[in-house]
Amino acid sequence: MAERIGQIARQLNYPKGLLYGQVAIITGSGQGIGAECARLFANEGAKVVVTDIDAKKTQEVVDTIRASGGKAIAVAGDMLDDNHIKELVKKAAEFGNGKIHIIVNNAGFTWDGVIHKMTDKQWDTILALHATVPFKLVREAAPYFRVKDGEPRNIINISSTSGLHGNAGQANYALAKAGVVGLTKTIAKEWGPQFGVRANTIAFGHIATRLTADKEAGAFIEVAGEKVALGIPSKQKKAQQANAGGVKYADIPLGRPGTATEAASAVLAIASPLSSYISGQTISVTGGRNI
Questions:
Q1: Is the CATH number 3.30.300.20 carried by domain 2-212+258-285?
Q2: What average pLDDT does range 50-60 have in this prediction?
Q3: DSSP per residue over 74-141, as a string?
Q4: pLDDT value of residue 230
Q5: How many CB atoms lie within 10 A of CB 113?
Q6: Of all helices (H) and strands (E), which one includes residue 159?
Q7: Per-residue confidence (pLDDT) for residue 19, from 0 to 100
Q8: Which has more confidence, 13 or 266?
Q9: Residues near 58 by beta carbon (within 8 Å), at least 6 away in sequence
Q10: Phi, psi at residue 201, to the nearest 5°?
Q11: How far is CA 150 from CA 15, 82, 101, 147, 194, in A?
């Protein structure tokens, strides 16, 4: 899909790429969907600011982009740290000679638990990361979006089907991901009329990343010294399959999870001028799940 978008760009008189010259901050872009967004954006001419809590992976993504002839810088750090948000916006503006055009609020992870067993730390951390952090980043970058220079400005907040439909064991994540939908619509209404800023939400379904891999694979993230295991228990996956008559991915009409590249391609499509009249919307990228 990404290659096809590139072909369309050339056909529609964007010979240097759909995002040529635009500066894009992509959070959580050291791996997974975020890293693919960074790569695809750079392929379309964007100057990409890669930021992730994992400094090594952040730099690796930047090195890969530069090796392919793209432009990128690494600004590693924890999005839950207000000082990092300030530094991120400052360095992005310097990289863009005083301009920032795109923010993709993608950073995040899940810390699941049923309602009656969920701790305050689980609740507060996930709401802060998935709802408060996107707001703080947008607020910090406001001076670079509330401008009238005739150049496109675009904010994309990443949500989930958990935010649209709820999900057992994810009360914290579901609330936060529902919240960014309201944040997106508010940005579109406040900054669209005067400044032409577009804001949209993309809600992903089952995308093959470390968050949907088998929990037994051992992926984890550290939160204030505590290791949080990532993924879905294989026992839970098998139970879901059994309930569906043994059919794998029975709830997905396309019959499979999406790839990180497919997910990132959807983000690129919404960020691009091909979607110039789309704003305030929530686009589901699910393979047909939940229809």
A1: no
A2: 97
A3: E----TT-HHHHHHHHHHHHHHTTS---EEEE-------B-GGG--HHHHHHHHIIIIIHHHHHHHHT
A4: 73
A5: 16
A6: strand 153-160
A7: 97
A8: 266
A9: 29, 30, 50, 51, 52, 74, 75, 76
A10: -115, 140
A11: 20, 30, 11, 8, 11
Q: Is 6 helix (H, G, I), strand (E, B) or coil?
A: helix
Tell the residue number behind the tokens 């967004």, with chain if given: 37
Q: How confident is the model at residue 226 (pLDDT cuts 50, 70, 90)?
A: confident
Q: What share of the chain is helix, strand, coil (3-state, %, to 5)?
A: 45, 20, 35
Point out the catalytic residue in the list 14, 20, 144, 173.
173
Containing 175, the helix (H) or strand (E) segment is helix 171-195
Residue whose entry in the numeric block shows the structure tokens 């998935």: 130
Give CA–CA dist 150/196, Å, rounded: 9
**Ranges of each domain in the chain:** 2-212+258-285, 216-256
Rounded to whole angstroms, the Cα distance separating 289 from 16 reads 35
CB-CB contact of 29 with 35 (8 Å): yes
Contact in structure between 181 and 160 (CB atoms under 8 Å): no
- Look at residues 201, 196, 97 and name the one whose alpha carbon lies nearest to residue 146: 196
At 209, the pLDDT band (50, 70, 90 cuts) reads: confident
Q: Is 277 a catalytic residue?
A: no
Buried b / exposed e along 157-179 (16+ C-beta atoms within 10 A): bbbbbbbbeebebbbbbbbbbbb
Q: What would the mean pLDDT of 113-142 be, rounded to a whole number?
A: 97
